[in-house]
Amino acid sequence: MAFPYMEAVVGFMMLKYIFETYLDLRQHAALKLPTSLPKTLEGVISQTYLEKCRAYSIDKSNFHFVKQFVTIIMDSATLLFGVLPWIWKKSGVVLESTGVDAENEIYHTLTFLAGAMIWSQITDLPFYLYSTFVIEERYGINKQTVWLFIKDMIKGMMLAIIIGPPVVAAIILIVQKGGPYLAIYLWGFMFVLSLVTMTIYPVLIAPLYNKLTPLPEGELRARIETLASSLNFPLKKLFVVDESTRSTCSNAYLYGFYKNKRIVLYDNLIQKCKNVEEVVAVVAHELGHWKLNHTVYLFVAFQVLIILLFGGYALVKNSKDLFMSFGFDSQPTLIGLMLYMQTIIPVLPLIIFGHNFVRRAFEFQADAFAKKLGYSKPLGDSLVKQEGNLSGLNADPWYSAYHYSHPTLVERLAALDEPHNKAD
Q1: Separation CA 13–CA 18 (nearest Å)
Q2: Are 362 and 330 in contact (CB under 8 A)?
Q3: 218: phi then psi, degrees, rounded to nearest 5
Q4: Residues 347 and 120: beta-carbon distance below 8 Å
Q5: Cβ neighbours for 183, distance < 8 A, ≥ 6 positions apart
Q6: CA–CA dist 335, 172 (Å, integer)
Q7: Which stretch of DSSP H or E encloses residue 165?
């Protein structure tokens, strides 16, 4: 008797939904508790602003319940009613009607993905629009215009059309010719692709969405260059990105390989911080991630995870039962990979929990690194001004352990206030 893969996947999806909804309910209850300013924030922010952040979090939570309920219903229906095999068959019909060989798996797969992308856009778009242009607009977080959103969506679709076909074709060919070393070949391809993406994204893709300009000469630039030099960080360029055109969120990040490093500051960060010291403190935190090799550790862990996933895929890629369970009467390569990814849903909560656990530890370490450099107070002051941090003041511990990749603001401020010997 064939194993009911599809029924099992839907069952695990439901269990995951129930588990995450339970955590959401705990978080929603925590958000509704009376909010008082923690001692670390007394005199730093007003009770009025705190209540505004609380109201925003509750609105987002209410919206999240609706979105997750609709999503689980639609995802389950997509599998149970055979939407994917229907799109696959229809894509073959479209190819035949245009005179293209429907037996060509690459052409057929690309047509299927185009149909799936259109379906995804139709189902996801209303949620994004409401979240961005209703909830975030209500609280002054969104700065993106409808026209800018449309332009971004068109750019994203164009990038998918340019980048997608060669990547899809390469994966199909590798699976067809990979033999016993399929997992190694797939991992090697994805490894090279990730390196290429990290190289070209900030140079060719990011500028399509945001304008990066060199940070002007002045005290801020001099202070950052001095800090980078003292840590032997090979800084080549220092940019400011116009994030204010889309959001009020503020941050900074590093990118680049080996001796060709760059630092990017959100313009919001410079605008919100009342002095140079606070901006430099954020950069010190990011340099802490670099100095402590956090990015390297996460990258290596991700590569191990990828090769394990591909190893599992190699074991089931020729399973006729897998395809038939989901309603496919043929065994297309990329479809097999997509179906396999559905079957590993049971391990996703463990991966999410482990990833967030490590990330939170790294954030504490990067904060401690900045603290050792003498930026404890300015880093704390800048954290208070960064959008999103205040939403975690009433975080339920179970919810934050599963969902948060960063410690809550209160936790970070408390760690910064500890004596050095405890923070080390």
Answers
A1: 9
A2: no
A3: 160, -170
A4: no
A5: 307, 310, 311, 313, 314
A6: 10
A7: helix 146-177
Torsion of CA 98, 102, 106, 112, to 10 degrees: 70
The distance in angstroms from the start CA to the end CA of the chain is 58
Question: Could you give the 3-state DSSP secondary structure of residue 236?
Answer: strand
Q: Which residues, other chains included, contact 110 with Cβ-Cβ below 8 Å and sequence gap of 6+?
A: 164, 165, 168
Q: Give the pLDDT confidence score for residue 123 in this predicted structure.
A: 87
Give CA–CA dist 316/5, Å, rounded.
12
Cβ(238)–Cβ(214) below 8 Å: yes
Tokens of 332: 């297309």
Q: Helix (H, G, I), strand (E, B), or coil: what is residue 104?
A: coil
Measured CA distances, 56 to 166, 365, 394, 417 (Å) = 42, 30, 13, 28
Q: Which residues of the chain, if any, have pLDDT below 50? A: 421-424
Give dist(CA 242, CA 208) in Å, integer: 12
Neighbours of 196 (CB within 10 A): 10
Closest CA to 87 of 113, 106, 107: 113
β-sheet with 252-255: strand ranges across? 212-214, 235-241, 261-266, 252-255
- The Cα 217–Cα 97 span in angstroms is 61
SS3 label, residue 269: helix
Task: Write down the pLDDT at residue 392.
Answer: 60
pLDDT reported for residue 423: 42
Inter-residue contact 408 to 363 (CB < 8 Å): no
d(CA 210, CA 246): 9
**pLDDT in the model for residue 424:** 44
Catalytic residue numbers read 286, 367
CB atoms within 10 A of CB 74: 13
Tokens at 214, concatenated: 């060199």
Q: Pick the closest to residue 273 from 223, 323, 317, 225 (CA basis).
A: 223
